[in-house]
């Protein structure tokens, strides 16, 4: 039983042989052939598709698939030849309609035939690797109809003519064009490309070549770009309506090449309408159109960028080298800002904020701004003007906007240390004169500078604000201790300043009035009593004073003057007439300062509280001065002279430059030593490159100067030449290392490390820090003087003077350093003390 269960169940074939009618295949094919004819003749409604399918199925099943397939090819070919003749007979505009109608009928017939022959399509055709029925119908249509010489050339000509008519502004049947081109695409990519697209692109190139030539001769640049853009958009639209999507890139390339690339140099440089004129006239729409079109062609944007860069550099160079523009530093910087705003707007609105254009703009500004060596000074003067009065009543957001624009120009400066030098001077005058609009704005700018250049750049500037705050506390203590002593005398206001943080001022002599010396001495005793190891020294060139003056008929005015002017005016309480020599002898004011002082008191209309004999604009040693009791003014308070920052004269500018160059030397030396400590052995050219890289955030050091500093360090035994290269050095000693690329190898001196370690252990100083941190301290005093009513200048006098303090303890120690201390530090500290 179990054996029977395990026996497999099998279906066996019929034992007897099935006999097929020899004429079966022929009869069945006649039925199917008749059905195909009826389908092509639009009589398919009377056919039984189920019966036809069964017949086709049986023919394949009985191995007559080949007869069925070959009969299908023959029958379809016969009908397509009739269709081809019908299409060829179509006249004029009916040609495309007839072709499209016959194509639609053929597709419908193919669908029905495919349904009837579905079994053959699924079994016989894959096994014999023949073409499927539907694809067979497409191939036969292509070979019989489309490849017909009469139809092929006519179809191509009509399609291209319709495109030409549409380009000329005529309306065509886009739906019909879409059907015909889709037919070509359905027949295969090669059919569409060979029978239409290739010729379409060639004709289009010729069309746009001629049209662009006509446009370039008759239109300006802006109008030409509009037409080119319109043509480009038309072609893109044409593709979307009735061409293959893959044709878009090809036809747009044709338009771009013929209408833009072939004429882009002429367009950009077109007279009275090219790129430069668009920039000058601020034609943002035309510039944006040029950017969009030129970005489509190779090197198009490069050309636009180069022309724009050249123009910006030329105009910028004219601005910074124009002597008339340089007369007003504030206007000079404002024009730079306006120029930058203009180009920024162009790049943002017209050039899609392209980073390459932004970089080109930055490079251009950096180029021409550094052509003028006074750019750092002018930017500082612009800031000074804004922070004195230009930002008064302006909102906080607008203040930040102005400061951001200033920082933008600051970034272009290569000599940032020169800007620091001037900015420190101007900031000092603003703080000491109390003329700053907003302390918050001052601190905001310092924060921006700190973010841009680091802590070292702004440490002294921040120290200036710290000194001003400390001065207030010092004055509160002084007034509290001496309130009874100074109740009837001058009121003193003192600013204690760290010399290392504030600009170095020359110590000038000036004989202060006797009434002031008493209160000054009291403050000196108070300050030295609370601070040990310091020395006070007045710097009267920075002071200001308020004087109450009585003129004829009892008319009184309050005069705001400098300390020098106060000293001169107070002399006329005891004399009606004084010669220049007498004033110079009594005040001991330096001659140059005294002449400027007397000129402002006697030669300025509306502020001439003194009279000069003989009357002239210049001050001579033989002049005599008298008190002008007829002085009148509609204002009670009269300001004579000012501490406001002014543009330096050429000699002053040269002197500042020399000071900057001297300040750079220790920075270069410190950078060299830092590099050699890290690298130990390095050739000359690499030392120059590394030093330039480290210092470029502050200034670009001259390779010749770097070479001299290296030689100085070698002489002071901080560096030494590699002995292995000494022979090679000797052979090139007669040449300039910096230009000939000599084999100079610099080795960090081991003795230097020993000395530096000794210094750090004993003095807590780091070579990598600026020696300016160990500078002396200075002090600013303001005094209020009370005079008797019988004097011409009476009631009150406010005086501000700058007093350097003695050396700090670390500086004093530097004087007693032994030979074991680093020579470079001794040199730095000695130069600071001498200064």
UniProtKB/TrEMBL annotation:
Coiled-coil residue spans: none
Membrane-spanning parts: none
Protein name: Cullin family profile domain-containing protein
InterPro entries xref list: Cullin, Cullin-like_AB, Cullin_homology, Cullin_homology_sf, Cullin_N, Cullin_neddylation_domain, Cullin_repeat-like_dom_sf, WH-like_DNA-bd_sf
Annotated ranges, domain Cullin family profile: 374-602
Entry's family note: Belongs to the cullin family.
SUPFAM superfamilies according to UniProt: Cullin homology domain, Cullin repeat-like, Winged helix' DNA-binding domain
Pfam families named among the record's database cross-references: Cullin, Cullin_AB, Cullin_Nedd8
Family matches, as SMART domains: CULLIN, Cullin_Nedd8
């Amino acid at each position: 039983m179990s054996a029977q269960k395990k026996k497999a169940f099998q279906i066996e074939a019929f034992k007897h042989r099935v006999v097929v009618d020899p004429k079966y295949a022929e009869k069945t094919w006649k039925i199917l052939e008749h059905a195909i004819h009826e389908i092509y003749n639009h009589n398919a409604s009377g056919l039984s598709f189920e019966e036809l399918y069964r017949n086709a199925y049986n023919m394949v099943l009985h191995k007559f698939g080949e007869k069925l397939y070959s009969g299908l090819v023959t029958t379809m070919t016969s009908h397509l030849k009739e269709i081809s003749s019908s299409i060829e007979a179509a006249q004029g505009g009916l040609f495309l309609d007839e072709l499209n109608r016959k194509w639609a009928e053929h597709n419908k017939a193919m669908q029905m035939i495919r349904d009837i022959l579905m079994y053959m399509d699924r079994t016989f055709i894959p096994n014999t690797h023949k073409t499927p029925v539907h694809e067979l119908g497409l191939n036969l249509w292509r070979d019989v109809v489309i490849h017909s010489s009469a139809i092929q050339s006519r179809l191509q000509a009509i399609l291209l003519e319709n495109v030409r008519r549409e380009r000329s502004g005529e309306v065509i049947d886009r739906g019909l064009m879409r059907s015909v081109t889709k037919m070509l695409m359905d027949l295969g990519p090669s059919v569409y490309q060979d029978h239409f697209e290739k010729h379409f692109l060639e004709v289009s190139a010729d069309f746009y070549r001629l049209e662009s030539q006509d446009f370039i001769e008759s239109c300006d640049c802006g109008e030409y770009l509009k037409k080119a853009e319109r043509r480009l958009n038309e072609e893109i639209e044409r593709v979307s309506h009735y061409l293959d999507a893959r044709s878009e890139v090809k036809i747009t390339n044709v338009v771009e090449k013929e209408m833009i690339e072939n004429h882009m140099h002429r367009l950009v440089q077109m007279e009275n309408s090219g790129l430069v004129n668009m920039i000058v006239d601020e034609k943002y729409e035309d510039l944006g159109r040029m950017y969009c079109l030129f970005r489509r062609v190779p090197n198009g944007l490069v050309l636009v960028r180069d022309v724009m860069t050249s123009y910006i550099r030329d105009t910028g160079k004219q601005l910074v080298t124009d002597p008339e523009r340089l007369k007003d530093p504030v206007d000079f910087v404002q024009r730079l800002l306006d120029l930058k705003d203009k180009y920024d707007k162009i790049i943002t609105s017209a050039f899609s904020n392209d980073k390459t254009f932004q970089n080109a703009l930055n490079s251009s500004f950096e180029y021409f701004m550094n052509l003028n060596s006074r750019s750092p000074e002018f930017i500082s003067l612009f800031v000074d003007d804004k922070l004195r009065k230009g930002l008064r009543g302006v909102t906080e957001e607008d203040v930040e906007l102005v400061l951001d624009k200033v920082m933008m120009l600051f970034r272009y400066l290569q000599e940032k240390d020169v800007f620091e030098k001037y900015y420190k001077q101007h900031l000092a005058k603003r703080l000491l004169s109390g003329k700053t609009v907003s302390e918050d704005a001052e601190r905001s700018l310092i924060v921006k500078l700190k973010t841009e250049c680091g802590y070292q750049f702004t440490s002294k500037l921040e120290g200036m604000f710290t000194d001003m705050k400390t001065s207030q506390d010092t004055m509160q203590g002084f007034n509290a201790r001496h309130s009874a002593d100074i109740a009837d005398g001058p009121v003193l206001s003192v600013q204690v300043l760290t010399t290392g943080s504030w600009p170095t001022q020359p110590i000038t002599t000036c004989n202060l009035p006797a009434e002031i010396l008493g209160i000054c001495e009291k403050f000196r005793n108070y300050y030295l009593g609370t601070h040990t190891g310091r020395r006070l020294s007045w710097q009267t060139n920075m002071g200001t004073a308020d004087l109450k003056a009585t003129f004829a008929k009892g008319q009184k005015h309050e005069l705001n003057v400098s300390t020098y002017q106060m000293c001169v005016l107070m002399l006329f309480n005891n004399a009606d007439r004084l010669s220049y020599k007498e004033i110079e002898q009594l005040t001991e004011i330096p001659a140059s300062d005294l002449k400027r002082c007397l000129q402002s008191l006697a030669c300025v209309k509306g502020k001439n509280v003194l009279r000069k004999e003989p009357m002239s604009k210049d001050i001579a040693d033989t002049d005599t001065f008298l008190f002008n009791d007829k002085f009148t003014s509609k204002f009670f308070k009269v300001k004579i002279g000012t501490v406001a920052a002014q543009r330096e004269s050429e000699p002053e500018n040269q002197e500042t430059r020399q000071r900057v160059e001297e300040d750079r030397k220790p920075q270069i030396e410190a950078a060299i030593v830092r590099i050699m400590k890290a690298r130990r052995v390095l050739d000359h050219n690499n030392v120059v490159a590394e030093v330039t890289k480290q210092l470029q955030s502050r200034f670009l050091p001259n390779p010749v100067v770097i070479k001299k500093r290296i030689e100085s360090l070698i002489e002071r035994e901080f560096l030494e030449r590699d002995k292995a290269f000494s022979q090679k050095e000797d052979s090139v000693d007669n040449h300039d290392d910096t230009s000939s690329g000599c084999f100079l190898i610099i080795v960090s001196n081991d003795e230097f490390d020993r000395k530096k370690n000794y210094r750090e252990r004993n003095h807590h100083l780091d070579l990598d820090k600026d020696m300016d941190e160990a500078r002396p301290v200075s002090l600013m005093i303001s005094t209020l003087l009370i005079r008797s009513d019988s004097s011409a200048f009476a009631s009150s006098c406010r005086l501000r003077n700058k007093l350097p303090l003695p050396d700090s303890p670390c500086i004093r120690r530097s004087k007693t350093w032994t030979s074991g201390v680093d020579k470079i530090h001794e040199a730095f500290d000695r130069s600071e003390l001498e200064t």
